[in-house]
Automatic annotation (TrEMBL):
Keyword annotations: Membrane, Transmembrane, Transmembrane helix
Transmembrane segments annotated in the record for this chain: 34-61, 73-92, 126-144, 150-172, 184-203, 223-244, 251-270, 276-295
Name under which the protein is recorded: Sugar phosphate transporter domain-containing protein
Source taxon at top rank: Eukaryota
Keyword Transmembrane helix: yes
Membrane topology summary: Multi-pass membrane protein
Subcellular location: Membrane
The organism's taxonomic lineage, starting at the top: Eukaryota, Viridiplantae, Streptophyta, Embryophyta, Tracheophyta
Listed Pfam families: TPT
Species this chain originates from: Aegilops tauschii subsp. strangulata
Residues of the Sugar phosphate transporter domain: 39-293
GO cellular component: membrane
Length: 336
């Protein structure tokens, strides 16, 4: 496969991820109330359960091939993903919205540091500069109040680290065991769903002081819950696909693009309050995204340098070292 073919496939994957995530953001207010005030973590477990059931149906229809691999790695990976989601929700519960946005912004530099230390990946100065511009723009557009507290800071730090490791593992597992995003998602979904289903009601109850199962589940609410679960199948699939085909950093860049799109569409379509600071931040972020895309494309190997071993293009990063892959992927299951 020559790099041009790889880049074309990556563009398709990226557009798919943006589209399905934007659709999930367009949830009605009744479902938003359930997510924000009652059952954010529990609802996520339902999403993952429906995703697993959908993939199982696809497997029965022979739309993809089941490829079992190291069970300990899969279990550790699935549990870690569930823990990272729970920690992100706890971080939002214990911190202001502004500090939570800073937590999300910190994921990219943390990912860069971890990949540099553990996998000896190299991010050029141009890539680092473009990411800095992007993060600065998103920060200007979204970060308002910054209220610090000890517990919230610790939870945010744990959320950042677990999220970074989980996303790096999503990429490295697919490459190490030569499994597709669908195969990895199918095998890890049960562990993610079970982890969140067990801790979800307690976590949601702790954060909201409300019983998840005491919510008024009217037919309208149930309809939109089912709808969100069906949409989440595409979201989960595209997430694993993007991280596997590109990189964890590129996935985070897309996440910030989604944030900018939400702000812009909210202003244009819903006439949400908007300031010059929001506009300036979005413009700076878009410039950063454009620079990141340009430098990644420019630093990708030329067709004459292509070889069957080229599996990842991210700022001219070298192939992952097998020894470090083994060390990193085997570490998480022992922690579970």
């Amino acid at each position: 496969i020559v790099p041009n073919d790889i880049l074309r496939k990556k563009r398709v994957v990226v557009h798919l991820n943006i589209l399905v995530k934007q659709k999930q953001v367009d949830c009605p207010e009744v479902l938003l109330n359930l997510v924000l005030y009652c059952a954010a973590t529990t609802l996520t477990s339902w999403h993952l359960l429906v995703t697993f059931c959908s993939l199982h149906v696809a497997l029965c229809m022979k739309l993809f091939e089941h490829k079992p691999f190291d069970a300990r790695t899969v279990m550790g990976f699935g549990v870690l993903n569930g823990i990272s989601i729970g920690l992100l929700n706890l971080s939002l519960g214990f911190n202001s919205v502004g500090f939570y946005q800073m937590t999300k912004l910190a994921i990219i530099p943390c990912t860069v540091i971890l990949e540099t230390l553990f996998f000896r990946k190299k991010f050029s100065r141009y890539i680092q500069l473009s990411l800095s511009v992007l993060l600065f723009g998103v920060g200007v557009a979204t970060v308002t109040d910054l209220q610090l507290n000890a517990m919230g800071s610790v939870l945010s730090l744990l959320a950042i680290v677990t999220t970074c490791i989980a996303q790096i593992m999503t990429n490295t597992i697919q490459k190490k065991f030569k499994v597709s995003s669908t195969q990895l998602l199918y095998q890890s979904c049960p562990y993610q769903a079970l982890t969140l289903f067990i801790v979800g009601p307690f976590l949601d109850g702790f954060l909201t002081n409300k019983n998840v199962f005491a919510f008024a589940y009217t037919p309208q609410v149930l309809f939109f819950i089912v709808l969100s679960c069906l949409i989440s199948v595409s979201v989960n699939f595209s997430t694993f696909l993007v991280i596997g085909k590109t990189s964890p950093v590129t996935y985070q860049v897309l996440g910030h693009l989604k944030t900018c799109l939400v702000l812009a569409f909210g202003y244009v379509l819903l006439h949400d309050p908007f300031s010059w600071r929001n506009i300036l931040g979005i413009l700076i972020a878009v410039v950063g995204m454009g620079l990141y895309s340009y430098f990644c494309t420019r630093e990708a190997p030329k067709p004459t340098e292509a070889s069957p071993q080229v599996t990842q293009l991210d700022g001219g990063s070298p192939p992952l070292l097998p020894g470090l892959l083994l060390q990193f992927s085997c570490y998480l299951p022992r922690m579970s």
